[in-house]
């Protein structure tokens, strides 16, 4: 498969998302074309470092760039103040200047943290995303949402800071654990559910074999990035349409907070459960047919993914506490929850007109 490019057109914050196999070993040329021979520092996690850091450093060395790396612990708990502080102070020690480059080599955790570090370092330095998970390739590396979690809620501390370039090497997904691949698939399915029924239909067919089919995988990444780029171009800072990308997240983020940002529930798993709940709520409110949530749940089951709260291991807070956690969602306006609901598959919309009794019923049903 050839390398494809999706251009994200945001005026002076525009950038290319390059998608294909072999991009990691081409990173030197890609970065020289972007910035010339600049100082470069890499933020990554310990797992990704063991698998892919040497290839990136070799590629940079081949064009004469020596790039030191800081390895952070792998996992969601890394999106926190102490690790952010460590990363920023290390970048200062490396004397990274505004026109230099910070590279995020890793999944969404590293991308979000490194992007935020780049946003606040010297009030903003350039950064390049080299996403190594399916989730990061289809979603987190594009669009400029960066940040860390707080105990009160997901991504509550952050900034919009667009990358200068995204290099999505499909080949690196081959080393992903199956659970991490599937978590990323939660965000892939989200695109179909929020705005493209045909894409969802294609996923119903192609999804179960996606990890073993590089051509289909590249198509899924390319299509997802194309949809996200379109939405971000029209609404960079989430004043309206961009909230559609939050389908499933009001539920998912509350469940991630409730499980302590741990391995009990990965972000993409929370999105899959949350998308199913959003369709269940839509059906219960008479906004779509009952066939829609059944189809969503059936697809996640066919993928071997969770779609119900009861599939999360361990104890969870009660419904009131979950609804209270939802109250920290960034979409809340004047203290009122806003949800992404749907008139059908591919037909999502934003609303604050939600029946709270039905919301609790849907939560209770999903627990059983
Ligand atoms: N900024 C955004 O727009 C946006 C969008 C979606 C999700 N997110 C955020 O992304 C995060 C989740 O990202 P994630 O699912 O990539 O998690 P992650 O970064 O924790 O990566 C998942 C696991 O895969 C490992 N890994 C990464 N690449 C690998 C590879 N190629 N081979 C083997 N192992 C590899 C990591 O070490 C980690 O253990 C959440 O914090 C979520 O909030 C942000
Ligand atoms: O890019 C966006 O916009 C998204 O909402 C993408 C989501 O998949 C992602 O998880 C995002 O970080 C959630 O945004 P938040 O504003 O609710 O933190
Ligand atoms: Zn997400």
TrEMBL record:
Domain 3-dehydroquinate synthase N-terminal: 71-181
Domain (3-dehydroquinate synthase C-terminal) ranges: 184-332
Record-listed NAD(+) binding positions: 108-112, 132-133, 145, 154
CDD domains, sorted: DHQS
Single GO MF annotation: 3-dehydroquinate synthase activity
Top-rank EC class of the record's enzyme: lyase
Primary subcellular site in the record, as a coarse category: cytoplasm
Cell compartments where the protein resides: Cytoplasm
Cofactor dependency: NAD(+); Co(2+); Zn(2+)
Annotated keywords: Amino-acid biosynthesis, Aromatic amino acid biosynthesis, Cobalt, Cytoplasm, Lyase, Metal-binding, NAD, Nucleotide-binding, Zinc
Record text on cofactor binding: Binds 1 divalent metal cation per subunit. Can use either Co(2+) or Zn(2+).
Catalytic activity: 7-phospho-2-dehydro-3-deoxy-D-arabino-heptonate = 3-dehydroquinate + phosphate
Binding site for Zn(2+): 187, 249, 267
Protein name: 3-dehydroquinate synthase
Organism: Paracoccus aurantius
């Amino acid at each position: 498969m050839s390398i494809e490019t999706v251009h994200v057109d945001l005026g002076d914050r525009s950038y290319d998302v390059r998608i294909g196999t072999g991009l990691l070993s081409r990173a030197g040329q890609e970065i020289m074309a972007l910035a010339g021979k600049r100082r470069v520092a890499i933020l990554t996690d310990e797992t990704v470092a063991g698998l892919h850091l040497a290839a990136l450093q070799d590629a940079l060395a081949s064009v004469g760039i020596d790039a030191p790396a800081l390895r952070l612990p792998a996992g969601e708990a890394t999106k926190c103040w102490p690790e952010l502080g460590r990363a920023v102070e290390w970048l200062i020690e490396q004397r990274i200047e505004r026109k230099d480059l910070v590279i995020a080599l890793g999944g969404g955790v590293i991308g979000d943290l490194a992007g935020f570090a780049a946003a606040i370092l010297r009030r903003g330095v350039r950064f390049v995303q080299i996403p190594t998970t399916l989730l990061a390739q289809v979603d987190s590396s594009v669009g400029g949402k960066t940040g860390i979690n707080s105990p009160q809620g997901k991504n509550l501390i952050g900034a919009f800071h667009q990358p200068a370039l995204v290099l999505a090497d499909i080949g690196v997904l081959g080393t992903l654990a199956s659970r991490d691949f599937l978590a990323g698939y939660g965000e892939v399915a989200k695109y179909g559910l929020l705005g493209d029924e045909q894409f969802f239909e294609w996923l119903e067919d192609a999804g179960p074999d996606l990890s073993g089919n590089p051509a289909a995988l590249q198509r899924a990444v390319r299509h997802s990035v194309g949809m996200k780029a379109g939405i971000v171009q029209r609404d960079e800072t989430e004043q309206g349409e961009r909230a559609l990308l939050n389908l499933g997240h009001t539920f998912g983020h509350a469940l991630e907070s409730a499980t302590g940002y741990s391995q009990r529930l990965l972000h993409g798993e929370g999105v899959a459960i949350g998308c199913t709940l959003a369709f269940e709520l839509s059906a219960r409110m008479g906004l779509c047919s009952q066939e829609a949530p059944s189809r969503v749940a059936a697809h996640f089951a066919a993928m071997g993914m969770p779609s119900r709260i009861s599939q999360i291991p361990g104890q969870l807070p009660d419904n009131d506490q979950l609804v209270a956690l939802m109250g920290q969602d960034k979409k809340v306006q004047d203290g009122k929850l806003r949800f992404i609901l749907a008139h059908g598959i591919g037909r999502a919309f934003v609303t604050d007109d939600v029946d709270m009794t039905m919301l609790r019923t849907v939560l209770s049903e999903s627990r059983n």
